[in-house]
């Protein structure tokens, strides 16, 4: 079965169930297979290459996976190049996408493997994401020669590198040098673009704003599924049972960046003013401390931490309020997705993204960072009076097809227009 002339096949990496180990002398790997570095297929058109450390559960990796599938569906050969392909999942990768496994555990040791791949496959362009990968991508592309390199930046540098000490200062310097040497830089929001100019000294004309392609069919299909949670059962929904406590929802990694400690303090204050419950979907290093804080605040019975959930969109579509409590972001995908499936949001006015997404507070309430009282007031106000819904056209700037087209223009075409013009290609 083919799609746009590309075989619909997939093979997993050695060591996983369903193994197909590629060996020297094997036929060229079919699109969708995991290919160890060094086994380039013959008679294959020059691919577009997308580079990231892994295909794990992060937002940046998810964006590359979705972009790869959409670009391949348009008839282009696509390589997803990763340090370690153990996280590659057949269900996530579309037909026509080949995963190239560099078989390296750390970015510091991947330079030689990436250079060899670029010289063998000769991709027409290399799109990289995440700071360490971006710096390596520029260096490898320049040493290999013949490959256009475009970097995707998903966070505001000042916030993302803060607190990293010497390591952060070295990385900032490497980014200053490497990002200037790239053929182009894509920022995921105007706030990130502004940070690249002010923090790294990049010329605005080298940066283009393209929003993340986070509104895919998967989001809307997932929103139609009933969540497997007793607080979201039909008889627990606010519109079905007025006396039931409405559910406040948050989604993200349980890490300091996400500000869930502030959310818990805000929720405790909101809970003192009216009945409500809180569900935080996600895993991370702060699970134990957040659970302990909920007990200290006396709200442990009204707070649930179910862990990672593959389909958070079902919860988003049925929560009474969605809260983004982050201290910093680049462009918070979960806020876009929650708003798209009907949630009424409360978000910190952090750098950067929430203000752009919510049109300055028109589509949801914005509160200061690290202010539990302001957040509590916004939660209560949202439970009592949901925010205005955005028009259908609002979602177009985040739609996969439109964003993939903007990326292709950037990867194939000339230099970007100035980020300072506030023009976002995927608006």
Describe this structure in words.
With 427 residues, this protein is α/β, with parallel strands linked by helices. The chain has 14 helices and 16 strands. Helix 12 links the parallel strand 15 and strand 16. The longest helix is centred in the middle third of the chain and has 17 residues. The chain is globular and about 65 Å long. The two termini are 35 Å apart. The N terminus and C terminus are likely disordered.
Fraction of residues in helix: 25-40%
Order of helices and strands: EEEEHEEHEHEHHEHEHEHEHEHEHEHEHH
What is the makeup of the main sheet?
A: 8 strands, parallel
Spatial strand sequence of the major β-sheet? 3-6-5-4-7-8-9-10
| Mean pLDDT across every amino acid position | 85
Total of DSSP H or I helical runs spanning 4+ residues? 14
Strand content: 15-25%
Overall morphology = globular
Number of strands: 16
